[in-house]
Backbone:
């Protein structure tokens, strides 16, 4: 499996592509913006989209969803507790961009649920804090974690938007993410990649 990324949108969001190297199937994670550009790149690479995965519902992670869903006729997966954030522009703070975004996931995922898409096995980790329904996708066979805006390199996601909680965020990181092995690579929603081990010793926000 290969992970590739694009940095998209007004706040430089990481959109990830989880690629099955054998089948050329691809999962699109957090399509932040520019659905047309994403679709063009996918076609140029000869990839076959299977699904869209969302770590949470903020506008800067979902602006490209509807365009891609329509273009490729693929389902959208998100955490069960995030359904109303996806639907409610006030909660997904899309008015900050001068727009109104409302989407509905095709499949709502439960905590600890194991799913296999494009031949890639993932475990859903419920990590409330940045939003009430934030989730991370853990790929145990690959030792990789797609952390959304829960955990960044030496930082964490902001909690001052609707449904956010700094207490919950720190608790989620400590009890759901820091129990993973130190060599698990972390792919965050913004900024560069890191590892669980590095964050355990260098992240000043988790105490």
Residues:
């Amino acid at each position: 499996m290969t992970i590739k990324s694009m940095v998209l949108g007004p706040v430089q969001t990481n959109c990830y592509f989880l690629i099955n190297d054998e089948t050329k199937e691809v999962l699109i994670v957090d399509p932040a913006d520019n659905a047309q550009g994403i679709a063009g790149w996918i076609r140029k690479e000869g990839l076959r989209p299977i699904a869209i995965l969302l770590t949470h519902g903020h506008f800067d992670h979902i602006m490209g969803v509807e365009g891609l869903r329509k273009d490729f006729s693929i389902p959208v997966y998100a955490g069960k507790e995030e359904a109303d954030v996806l639907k409610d522009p006030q909660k997904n703070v899309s008015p900050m961009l001068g727009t109104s975004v409302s989407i509905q996931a095709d499949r709502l995922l439960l905590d600890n649920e194991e799913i296999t898409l494009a031949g890639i096995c993932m475990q859903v980790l419920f990590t409330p804090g940045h939003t009430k329904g934030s989730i991370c996708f853990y790929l145990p066979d690959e030792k990789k974690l797609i952390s959304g805006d829960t955990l960044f390199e030496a930082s964490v996601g902001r909690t001052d938007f609707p449904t956010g909680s700094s207490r919950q965020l720190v608790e989620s990181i400590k009890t759901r993410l820091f129990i993973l092995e130190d060599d698990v690579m972390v792919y965050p929603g913004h900024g560069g990649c890191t590892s669980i081990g590095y964050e355990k010793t260098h992240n000043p926000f988790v105490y």
